[in-house]
Amino acid sequence: MKLSARNVLKGKVKSVKPGVVNAEIVVELPGKMELVSIITKASAETLKLKEGMEVYAVIKASSVMIATD
Q1: What mean pLDDT value characterizes the chain?
Q2: Using only C-alpha atoms, what is the Rg of the chain?
Q3: What's the average model confidence in pLDDT over 30-38?
Q4: Within a domain: residue 30?
Q5: Are 20 and 10 in contact (CB under 8 A)?
Q6: Where are the alpha helices (DSSP H) in 1-69?
Q7: For the domain that residue 54 is a member of, what is the CATH number?
Q8: For 14, which of 2, 26, 40, 55 could close a Cys bridge (C-beta 3.0–4.6 Å)?
């Protein structure tokens, strides 16, 4: 797999919560950190996502915001 995205994180699906239109996918990354992604329900079904499955979280964004208190 080759992608133009620079941020590709490997992890395991911790949970899949399907909704009417979208699905919430929680991916556990190394170090027990979690990443949450909202994708279409159709995409989750096409990928056959299920708990424990190894996946890649691909992040491509033109900007990343940083905030402080």
Answers
A1: 92
A2: 13
A3: 95
A4: yes
A5: no
A6: 41-46
A7: 2.40.50.100
A8: 26
55, 33 in Cβ contact below 8 A?
no
For residue 20, being part of any structural domain is answered with: yes
- CA dist 29 and 12 (Å) reads 7
Q: Using CA of residue 6, residue 9, residue 10, residue 15, what is the dihedral sign?
A: negative
pTM of the model: 0.85
> Which residue matches tokens 């056959």?
48
Query: Mean pLDDT throughout 56-60?
Result: 90
In a domain, residue 50? The reply is: yes
- CA distance readout (Å), 5 to 9, 16, 55, 58: 11, 24, 15, 7
Number of domains in the chain: 1
pLDDT band at 65 (very low <50, low <70, confident <90, very high): confident
Whether residue 68 lies inside any domain: the answer is: no
